[in-house]
Amino acid sequence: MEQFHPKRDKLPMLRTISNADARRLFISKQGLCRDPGRMLGKDGLVEAITHLGYVQVDSIQVVERAHHHILFSRSQTYRKRHLAALIEKDRLLFENWTHDASIIPSAFFPYWRHRFEKQKERLRERWKGHFEQENFERDIDAVREHVALNGPAMARDFEGDKPNTGWWDWHPAKAALEYLWQTGELCIARREGFQKVYDLSERVIPPASFERRVDRAEFVDWACRAALQRLGIASRGEIAAFWDLLSAAEVESWIDANRSELVPVKAEAVGGGRPAPGYMLAEHEPMLDDIPEPPGRVRILSPFDPLLRNRNRTERLFGFFYRIEIFVPEAKRRYGYYVFPVMRGDRIVGRIDMKASRSDDVLAVRAFWKEPGVRASNALRTDIEAELERLRRFSGVGKTSFEADWFCCAHPD
Predict the structure, then answer these.
(1) What is the pTM of this model?
(2) What is the C-alpha to C-alpha distance for residues 153 and 63, in angstroms, rounded to an integer?
């Protein structure tokens, strides 16, 4: 997080936020202070995703796919069929990109048009080395016309030889579909398995959202405010990175123009580390006097949970160092291929290695490593086992198995 420059920023004395308050504020903003047993339903699901801003989509399914796991962590009454209906029938959600592929409220589509324009330049430059530019334009036109005339389409609906580039092993029509999706002309109408089915955006996005336009100034103002609303406290860089829509210069200009609505603060780091400066919206300052306590039960989080996206913030607020080791060679992994953070109350108390094996109908639990300072109590073990039982039912397997001495394993050197 960047440092303030008093001469440039002309800031009053910064209000210091304790680590406990900064941590609980962020947890609240991430929807994890709400009762996880509350009934959600479709309306509640739209509200929950809007509260978060987006939910990342990932194809890996060790226990459940990331988007399902993220939503289940916030309400154990979450149902996958509700999410599918909201995307494929009600059209209140759509899939596109933030920092990665995500599910986003359709009401945000007008703001994403600014991303689409940026992507047109970036992707043409990035992909021209893999596909001949003249042919690529031809393929884009052909795919666009095919979808317009014939309706929703998948990559397998197009014939053609794959290029001998080794680049994702995509054939030109697949690249054209992805280009048209990432630049807003196509949307994902539904998925078959995990395969995308594309259609024209005007046939997917509700008319009120599709037809609305916002200028750049309104877009920047929305993106900055919406990021702060979801982060609670954030630096310039964190505001810019939240949606991955803004430049640092745009955020800088927005802060300069809106200082009367911002409160400069510094949030203490866990363990007495150096406080990190940032901003919060003045309208949210009263929340510091009445921050809700998160439920005391254990929740096992997805590695792609938005609470953990910014690893530096995770370390600063929770004292938890975490990396996904999917791309680390097996011999060099410290914990495992896909290890899940374990949260209890307002603390991250450890990480767990587990996998739902559907062929064996079992949730296989290999190991739990507690964080330093966490007591390996029977109560903690009972709480973890209760959450594992909830996840087992959610993932649809019949039983749970435990490795011998799975609880509170010794940390690897």
Answers:
(1) 0.91
(2) 29
Yes or no: say if 320 and 341 are a contact pair by the CB < 8 Å rule.
Answer: yes
Q: Rounded CA gap, 408 and 376, in Å?
A: 7
Amino acid of residue 288: L
Q: DSSP for 82-140?
A: HHHHHHHTS--EEEEESSSEEEEEGGGHHHHHHHHHHHHHHHHHHHTTTS-HHHHHHHH
Phi, psi (degrees; rounded to nearest 5) at 5: -120, 100
The whole-angstrom separation of Cα 370 and Cα 378 is 13
Mean pLDDT of 223-240: 97
With left for phi above 0 and alpha for psi between -120 and 50, is residue 76 left, alpha or beta? alpha
Give yes or no for residue 91 having a pLDDT over 80. Answer: yes
**DSSP assignment letter at 99:** S
Closest CA to 275 of 316, 237, 312, 240: 316
pLDDT (tens digit, 9 = 90+) per residue, 35-68? 999 999 999 999 999 999 999 998 899 999 999 9
